[in-house]
């Protein structure tokens, strides 16, 4: 005869009540904003091509399937990171562009915030995401190129509005061309971004800024 195997009884407490089985741990949750911020920092430091999926996985604490499920492929994550960078930069300067300030004071504050952004980084100054990495990818990728151009035009328009208001208030001569001055102001932004990444000290960068402001506010 075949003996039936008795099923082992479930563990019980001293009172004789069965103990509920332990649940398996749930996968560790991640915070998308924090993960995107980590990816942004990595792309700013190393660029698109030099940043591997393993690098991104290590930086965000997410494995490859999780990264793909949350953000898409590496290119999609890069684009999302650049958009996050633009959103952060826009938020950092929004009040300065919006407030009623003399043009010289407004420009000084805008460039001070820009330098804070460009000179940040635990391993050294990182410059501007757009100028230092996105422009390289724009050569080969139409969507990134469009994104870069959109950012450049947005900055030009913001500066042009500042110069038009200053002209209306008599802070600039009637002959001042707001569009040309805006492009000069944007070019100054790009210049200090490159020089910051190259390790030029802040004091020297501020001298570049002050010289440019003197030219724009004649």
Please give the count of helices.
9
Report how far the terminal alpha carbons are from each other: 108 Å
Secondary-structure content class: mainly alpha
| β-sheet strand percentage | under 5%
User: How would you state the average pLDDT, rounded?
Assistant: 88
Compute the gyration radius: what is it?
A: 27 Å
Stretches with pLDDT under 50, minimum 5 residues:
4-8, 20-28
Which outline best applies? elongated
In short:
This protein is mainly α.
How would you describe this structure to a colleague?
α1 (32-46) packs across α2 (53-60) and α5 (103-118) packs parallel to α8 (178-197). It is built from nine helices and no strands. It has helices spanning 32-46, 53-60, 64-71, 74-98, 103-118, 129-138, 142-168, 178-197, 202-216. The protein is elongated, with a radius of gyration of 27 Å.
């Amino acid at each position: 005869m075949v003996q039936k195997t008795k099923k082992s009884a479930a563990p019980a407490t001293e009172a004789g009540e069965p103990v509920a089985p332990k649940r398996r741990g749930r996968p560790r949750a991640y915070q998308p904003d924090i993960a995107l911020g980590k990816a942004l920092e990595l792309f700013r430091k190393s660029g698109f091509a030099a940043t591997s999926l393993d690098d991104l996985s290590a930086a965000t604490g997410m494995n490859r399937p999780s990264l793909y499920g949350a953000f898409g492929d590496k290119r999609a994550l890069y684009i999302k990171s650049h958009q996050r960078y633009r959103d952060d930069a826009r938020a950092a300067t929004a009040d300065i562009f919006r407030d009623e300030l003399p043009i010289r004071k407004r420009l000084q504050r805008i460039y001070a915030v820009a330098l804070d952004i460009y000179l940040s980084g635990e391993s050294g100054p990182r410059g501007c995401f757009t100028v230092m990495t996105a422009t390289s990818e724009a050569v080969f990728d139409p969507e990134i190129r469009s994104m870069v151009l959109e950012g450049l035009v947005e900055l030009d328009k913001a500066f042009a509005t500042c110069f038009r208001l200053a002209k209306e208030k008599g802070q600039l001569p009637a002959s001042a061309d707001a569009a040309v001055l805006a492009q000069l102001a944007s070019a100054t932004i790009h210049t200090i971004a490159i020089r910051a990444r190259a390790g030029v000290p802040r004091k020297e960068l501020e001298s570049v800024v002050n010289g440019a402001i003197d030219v724009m506010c004649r």
